[in-house]
Design goal:
heterotrimer, A alpha+beta, B alpha+beta, C mainly alpha, A: alpha+beta, Helix Hairpins, Immunoglobulin-like, Cytochrome Bc1 Complex, Chain D, domain 2, five-stranded mixed sheet, 16% strand, B: alpha+beta, Ctag/Cox11 (Pfam 04442), 2 domains
């Protein structure tokens, strides 16, 4: 009975490949991840062999040296030679393990001569990517619908492992990641690359990967970072270099255009329906994690917006805009001015001031936001 | 029987002293860690004090690429970025890079930039003659500033470091600054 | 080891003890205090276990069903704190209180009044900790490792209570440790020299030194968290010149010796039980002592293996990897010694022995996963996944807790004067053994396949593994109620136990009658 776990562990290696990937370490798609996988398997096998020997001896002893079979116990309790042997032999095995581990580690930590550099920033509870060589940056958030999490809708294939805007990298190129954080410690982990690096606020860490296979690779935050730690996945798409170039050029143009459009929008007025519709969407994807979908917040941690605070005070319109745009220092409230477009900011503030029974009747327009931003 | 036994109180005192010593050691780990980092470049932070430029020979045979990135910590809405993304520099050569900051809010603010270098080892060879990060930076409401950073690389920088990144994370320090300090800071600006 | 005692004891005729609540509140008797520690730890074990049930129930299926993520984080945090500081450590202190004086032939602990204090402040610490769960904003939700800045800038206001509770627990452990050291150094019976001490005494002696070395460091760490949060210091805040990673260095400087604090006494217990039921002397007594000391010393040099992903230079990663791998050597020596003790012995399989054998095998499995985790490049993949959860539950549940259960069954006849119900006890063992493996073994697979730890919801590919683990979890939780039943039944009555109920047991504790009289060894025994 007690051997059961060990057998299961051994049986694992003979399982078909599909099942294996679900139960064993991800082999991954990079040279490094394959080396890591091989190292994992070598050590695993060594442990199995030692386990079989040690547990085997124990079971032989339990069967043959029980009182009913062996009423008179032997009397030995020391043997210097044996004791030295079982100190030295494990030591040699360990040296055998340490050699490949050391070479792999040194290869993993060599970040020099990168082709592409991406700044990866963890933030409660999303990732931000900024390409060093191009004017492209964006937040990447969980795309799974809240209804799936709440068991109201059926869960999709990539439940909790899908994002709105994945990171895109070229294949066959060395991509260097500069990892940091805006708030608490996060950890950027993509098992297929064997890359896991903590995002420490105020410090940058670096790591790298070189993916040869185009594809979609998924990972998750791997350091407890507060309430929605389980809901900030990572998705990386590796594209052929030509496709990557096309994508990044388009993205650059698109972001440039968006900045210009922002300026034009200042003159436009949005209708109440338009504001409330967009506002609800933005609220649910950006604000509801803390302030909750019903605006009730979490007692003592995240203030309620429904029925209290600036969102019901008709005098506090500008303050409300200021808080959303510039954040609140020393609290979890971030400055959303740099994360959302002015249209989205206007909509979400309008929504907060008129949803859940809040009745200020205020309609906020992009121009109001612009005014606060440029005060 | 107890007369044969050693006095407990001496032993207890020694043990209590050990406890007190270890409590102090816990706090001593803080400066020890700082010193350790300074000597080994362990955490990639650069020195807080200005380096005095030593007349060194410029090693023209080598070029090191220094990249600059910035990031705002949560809660500070300033615009903050380097004027140039990267420079190529010979070890020993002095360069100035400007960082641009603007305060779009309607209140006066003070910020502190925290430097970090990757790979951390490179921080040992980065000498800053002048840096805005040595002090807190005040910015009046709606104003902007150009903040210089003057540096050179120690010619001892190992050959394997061909590129490194210097990052600045900007933190809002306004809440820790009194009104008088703020006025003082803005005046000297 | 030493056993021969010159005279028989006639303690019983003046075995009068005080009655009522006052007996327990003001007691300075090591046996009373030991019992209180053990019952307290059992209550905490059930409390922390109840939280584990909440966690496993939420993880039974993907999606959020029972609790919100913030409360889930509070459950994982408080579960960890309670099990470490409330269940395992007090259980060992309880065993130390009961057994160390009897094993070394001392009448009581050296500092009996301090002993009373070190127990009685504990309940307050845990009332504060548990009470903080009901505060606005909830209790601590940053993991038992309370990494800054999640525990400083981003934590709720209950953090002050958390810090206060940890301080009290620390003071209690330190007082307990001082008491153990002074007792062992000053109270041994004549002739009981160091290399004659039972291994349980030896391992506790070394553990006590670890405690006084690292508990103050933990106190320092929580104090820094407190001042960072409330008094404007910046030990761990980059904005003020601090470094959040330094918190982890300080924490794990405490934390790694701490995990050995929770396993070294187990080694002592197993080293008492295996020879007793093998009817053969422990193999390699001296090497056991040296191995324990080596593990304790190495534990100060390996802390950063918990932090390989924080971004250390290669030289540091290599140093900590090598040191960590080295620990496998003395640990291996212990395992081999136990197997050699069993070899050509004359074994019987009473409940304490069953738990001890399960300990050896399952702790070794935990050791294997520990060795795998030591290898830095692979640790990058394992770190902060369920593989780690599986690893430390193998060493802490099937390691530390199984050894505590083994010790309880081994010494229950001595404590109560009655034999426990052997059928119930074996039922407890087999249900625990099966369910604990159903609970924790699948977690290895979940971790390898990529499931991060401390998440309230997971991708659908992990669903069946989690379901199996949860079923094992509920079964393991229920099995522990059998343990409670056995213990109560045994206290209340049962077959009368002899002074030495186990044929092969050795040690001074078996020379006094069962139940052990209120006062033992008022006249020190002579040890040859």
């Amino acid at each position: 009975m007690k051997m059961k776990p060990l057998w299961a562990l051994l049986a694992l290696t003979s399982l078909p490949a599909a099942a294996q990937s679900r139960l064993n370490l991800t082999q991954g798609v990079t040279e490094v991840s394959n080396r890591v996988y091989d190292l994992h398997m070598i050590i695993f096998y060594i442990c199995c062999v030692i386990g079989v020997v040690v547990f085997g001896l124990m079971f032989i002893s339990m069967i043959r040296h029980r009182k009913s079979k062996n009423p008179n116990p032997a009397n030995f309790h020391e043997n210097v030679k044996v004791e030295i042997a079982w100190t030295i032999v494990p030591l040699l095995i360990l040296v055998g393990m340490a050699i490949p581990a050391t070479t792999t580690l040194i290869a993993m930590e060599d970040t020099s001569d990168a082709d592409v550099t991406v700044q990866v920033t963890g933030s409660q509870w999303k990732w931000h990517y900024k390409y060093f060589e191009n004017e492209v940056e964006y937040f990447s958030r969980l795309a799974t619908r809240q209804e799936q999490i709440d068991n109201k809708f059926e869960k999709g294939e990539n439940y909790l492992l899908e994002v709105d805007r994945p990171l895109v990298i070229p294949t066959g190129k060395k991509v260097r990641f500069l990892v940091t954080s805006d708030d608490v410690i996060h950890s950027w982990w993509v098992p297929d690359f064997a890359v896991k690096k903590d995002a420490n606020p105020g410090f940058i860490n670096e790591t790298w990967t070189k993916v040869d296979e185009p594809g979609i690779y998924r990972g998750q935050c791997a350091e407890l970072c507060g309430k929605d730690h389980g809901f900030m996945p990572i998705v990386v798409i590796a594209k052929e270099p030509a496709e990557y170039e096309k994508w990044i050029t388009e993205k650059e143009a698109e972001q440039q255009a968006a900045r210009e459009r922002e300026q034009e929008l200042l003159a436009m007025e949005m209708s109440e329906d338009e504001l409330m519709d967009l506002g609800e969407k933005v609220y649910n994807s950006t604000c509801a994690a803390c302030h909750q979908a019903n605006g009730q917040g979490v007692d003592g941690v995240f203030p309620a917006l429904a029925g209290s605070g600036v969102s019901v005070d008709p005098e506090a319109k500008d303050k409300h805009i200021d808080i959303v745009v510039n954040g609140v220092t020393g609290s979890a409230m971030q400055a959303f001015g740099s994360q959302l477009s002015m249209r989205e900011l206007a909509a979400v503030i309008t929504y907060e001031r008129n949803a859940w029974g809040n009745e200020t009747g205020d309609l906020i327009q992009a121009a109001d936001i612009n005014e606060v931003m440029n005060q | 029987m107890s007369d044969q036994r050693p006095d407990n109180s001496i032993l207890v005192k020694r043990l209590l002293l050990t406890v007190a010593g270890m409590f102090a050691f816990g706090f001593a780990l803080v400066p020890l860690y700082d010193v350790f980092c300074e000597v080994t470049g362990f955490n990639g932070r650069t020195s807080n004090e200005a380096a005095v430029y030593q007349e060194v020979e410029v090693d023209e045979s080598r070029t090191v690429t220094v990249q600059f990135i910035t990031r705002n910590a949560k809660g500070i809405p300033w615009k903050f970025e380097p004027s140039i993304k990267q420079v190529k520099i010979h070890p020993g050569e002095v360069k100035v890079v400007n960082f641009l900051a603007s305060n779009p809010t309607s209140s006066n603010m003070v910020a502190q930039a925290i430097p970090s270098v990757a790979p951390a080892e490179a921080s040992l060879y980065l000498n800053k003659v002048e840096c805005f990060c040595f002090n807190q930076q005040p910015l009046a409401a709606g104003s902007d500033a150009e903040m210089p950073m003057q540096f050179y690389l120690d010619p001892d920088i190992p050959d394997h470091i061909t590129t490194f990144t210097l990052s600045y994370t900007l933190y809002d320090m306004t809440a820790n600054t009194s009104a008088e300090q703020m006025a003082q800071l803005l005046k000297t600006e | 080891m030493s056993t021969a005692v010159e005279e028989t004891h006639h303690d019983t005729h003046h075995d009068h003890k005080p009655y009522g609540i006052g007996r327990w509140l003001f007691t300075t008797n090591h046996k009373d205090i030991g019992s209180m520690y053990l019952w307290f730890s059992f209550i905490m074990f059930l409390t922390g276990g109840a939280m584990a049930m909440v966690i496993r129930a939420e993880l039974f299926q993907p999606g959020l069903q029972l609790v919100d993520p913030h409360f889930f984080n509070q459950m994982t945090t408080v579960h960890g704190l309670i099990m470490v500081f409330g269940a395992v450590m007090p259980a060992f202190t309880g065993l130390a209180n009961w057994m160390i004086p009897m094993m070394i032939g001392a009448p009581d602990m050296a500092l009996p009044r301090m002993n009373n204090w070190s127990f009685w402040i504990l309940p307050f610490a845990f009332v504060i900790l548990l009470g903080s769960l009901f505060m606005e904003g909830g209790g601590p939700a940053f993991g038992w490792t309370f990494y800054a800045p999640l525990s400083t800038t981003y934590s709720s206001d209950s953090t002050a209570l958390f810090v206060f509770a940890i301080h009290i627990m620390g003071i209690s452990s330190i007082m307990g440790a001082i008491n153990v050291i002074v007792t062992i150094m000053n109270m041994r019976a004549p002739g009981m020299n160091y290399m004659k001490m039972p291994l349980f005494v030896w391992t506790w002696f070394i553990t006590a030194f670890l405690l006084i070395a690292v508990m103050p460091v933990l106190a320092g760490a929580v104090t820094m968290v407190l001042t960072d949060k409330y008094f404007g210091t910046s030990f761990f805040d980059a904005a003020g010149g601090g470094d959040p990673v330094m918190f982890q260095h300080i924490f794990w400087f405490f934390g790694h010796p701490e995990v050995y604090i929770m396993i070294l006494p187990s080694f002592g217990i197993i080293s008492a039980i295996i020879p007793a039921f093998t009817r053969k002397r422990l193999f390699g007594y001296a090497s056991m002592v040296y191995a324990t000391a080596a593990i304790a010393l190495l534990s100060f040099l390996v802390w950063a293996h918990h932090m390989f992903t924080t971004g250390m230079p290669v030289f540091a990663e290599l140093f900590f990897m090598y040191c960590t791998m080295l620990i496998a050597v003395p640990t291996g020596v212990k395992i081999f010694n136990w197997v050699a003790t069993m070899w050509r012995g004359s074994m019987t399989f009473e409940t304490p022995m069953l738990f001890a054998l399960a300990f050896v095998i399952l702790f070794t499995i935990g050791g294997f996963s520990g060795l795998m985790l030591a290898i830095t490049p692979v640790d990058f993949q394992y770190h902060d996944t369920y593989f780690v959860v599986a690893h430390f539950h193998y060493v802490l549940v099937t390691g530390a807790i199984f050894s505590i259960m083994a010790a309880s069954y081994y010494w229950l006849p001595k404590w109560t004067g009655h034999m426990y119900d052997t059928t119930l006890a074996k039922t407890h063992f087999w249900t625990s053994l099966i369910s604990v493996n159903v609970l924790f073994f699948p977690m290895h697979f979940a971790g390898l396949a990529g499931m991060p730890r401390r998440i309230p919801d997971y991708a659908t590919q992990f669903a069946d593994i989690n379901q199996i683990a949860s079923i094992g979890g509920f079964a393991f939780g229920l099995s522990q109620l059998i343990f409670l039943w056995v213990a109560i039944k045994c206290v209340k009555g049962g077959e009368k136990a002899e002074a030495k109920p186990w044929e092969g047991a050795e040690g001074l504790e078996w020379t006094v009658p069962s139940p052990a009289p209120y006062h033992t060894f008022e006249k020190p025994p002579k040890v040859e």
